[in-house]
Amino acid sequence: MSTARSSTRLPTLRQVVARGHLRLILFSVALASASITVSGIFIVHDYIQRNLQLVAHTIGYTIEPALVFGDKDALDRGIASVVGHQDVARVEIVGANGTLLNVWTQSDENLESPAELIADRVLWPAPLVDPVERNGQRLAVVRVYGSSATILTYGSMGLMVGLCCLGLTILATRILARRLEREIISPMEHVAQVAHAVRFDRDFGRRVAQSGIYEVDRFASDFNALLVELQGWHESVVSENKELAHRAAHDSLTGAGNRDLFEKTLNDAATIATASDGTFALLFIDVDQFKQVNDDFGHNEGDCVLAETARRLGRCVRSSDQVFRLGGDEFALIVSPLPDSGWVETLRNEIEAAMLRPIELECGEEIAVSLSIGSAIYPLDGPDVKAILRRADAGMYGRKRLKRIGMAQTGEST
Fold first, then answer.
1. What backbone torsions phi and psi does residue 364 show, to the nearest 5 degrees?
2. Tens digits of per-residue pLDDT, 102-154?
3. Residue 81, CA atoms < 13 Å, CB-side half-sphere
4. Rounded distance, CA 141 to CA 98, Å?
5. What is the DSSP letter of 87?
6. Which residue, 18, 2, 22, 7, is CA-closest to 192?
């Protein structure tokens, strides 16, 4: 019970393959998206870095006259005209003596978010510096701080594209999983069904169909070959078991049932008759003067007489009746079910008529064989098995005794 419960908790092959397939594709897509996004960020960062350097140099060139004449308004206009829509967060103009001459930042409408401020510090921890000189004399230094707005926008777009790709990947994985189920999982399930049928139903005629996949078909061919061998082995074992069971329950000389089978069949017949208020008949049969046959012709010829007697008895009974050899020259018949009480006398007459024809021995001689038959009907002649056994046995020996008396009287009169 515990094994069955644990097996139900195990994942199926379909689930394992689909799960592995999904993980592999998700990992591949996530790795590709991350690689493209990160490499794109580095490329954009390098591009902005170069652009900021150019902006710093351009600002220095633009504000040089304003620095010479000390025109602060011209200085503001010069910086604004250059930075415009560039990726610039802050511009500082520092004089040659270290005095901060001018500061430009993003306008109030375009203030950077906290995420952008953090990204600015990470991506541009130090400003890009460009000196402003005139005739070899340094007038000021331009410091340009980059803005991460473009990079964050690119990263957000990359994240959205990655999520879309993951969604499409999950959808594609479902489609591929169904195709995988149809092409691989279904053949494997078919193999499992065949193996289950062979194991539990002993259906050794089942075979695994070809799937069109090389590895699966090779496995199916080997599996079918194994089933062929297993089927042959099973048929051989069944045949041997039947043969052994038949030998254990039948007489090797005559092929009739032996004493063990007789006792079992007799008890079964009594049980069935009791349950159905039916009847059956028991006949005890003994070959007359059988010892004389052995003495005159030998045991091999005696065996020939016993075998032929069993064959003739078998031809006289119905398919539902059975013939038994109890030992030596004693036979028994169980007639079940019994049509009527007169059937026993009819059967006795048929047996005696069948034995009128002489038996041909292997030596070429022919001898006439007679039988002494005693019978009993259950439950008319006894309430149980022991009672009808005694009645049939007594009837057989009574007939044998009458025959001996008759032969003795015939001999005396002669």
1. 100, -15
2. 888 876 545 566 777 777 777 777 888 888 888 878 888 888 887 777 777 77
3. 12
4. 9
5. S
6. 7
Contact 130, 142 (CB under 8 A): yes
Looking at residue 155, its amino acid is G
The span from the CA of 354 to the CA of 316, in Å, is 8
Higher pLDDT, 325 or 211: 325
Phi/psi-derived region of residue 142, left when phi > 0, alpha when psi is between -120 and 50, beta in every other case = beta
58-98 pLDDT, tens digit per residue, is 888 888 887 777 778 887 788 888 886 667 878 888 887 88
Residue 245 in 3-state DSSP? helix
3-state secondary structure 173-203: HHHHHHHHHHHHHHHHHHHHHHHHHHHHHCC
Residues in contact with 149: Cβ distance below 8 Å, sequence separation at least 6, in sequence order: 87, 112, 116
- Strand bridging mode 366-367 / 371-378: unpaired
Parallel, antiparallel, or unpaired for β 137-146 and 88-95? antiparallel
Q: 7-21, 115-129, 185-199: which has the minimum mean pLDDT?
A: 7-21
Q: How far apart are CA 200 and CA 221, in angstroms?
A: 22
Residue with the bigger pLDDT between 72 and 16: it is 72
3-state secondary structure of 387: helix
**Pure H helices in 279-375:** 290-297, 299-316, 342-354
Looking at residue 138, its amino acid is R
Rounded to whole angstroms, the Cα distance separating 191 from 79 reads 78
277 tagged catalytic: no
Beta-carbon contacts of residue 384 (< 8 Å; ≥ 6 apart) = 270
Find the catalytic residue in 329, 340, 381, 393.
329
Select, from the ranges 17-21, 37-41, 368-372, 408-412, the one with the highest average predicted confidence (pLDDT): 368-372
* 394 Cβ contact list (under 8 Å, min separation 6): 374
Host H or E run for residue 166:
helix 149-180
Q: How far apart are CA 213 and CA 164, in angstroms?
A: 34
Nearest Cα neighbor of 102 from 62, 135, 53 is: 62
Q: How far apart are CA 166 and CA 107, in angstroms?
A: 38
CB-based burial, 207-236: b 16+ in 10 Å, e otherwise: ebeebeeeebeebbeebbeebeeebeeeee
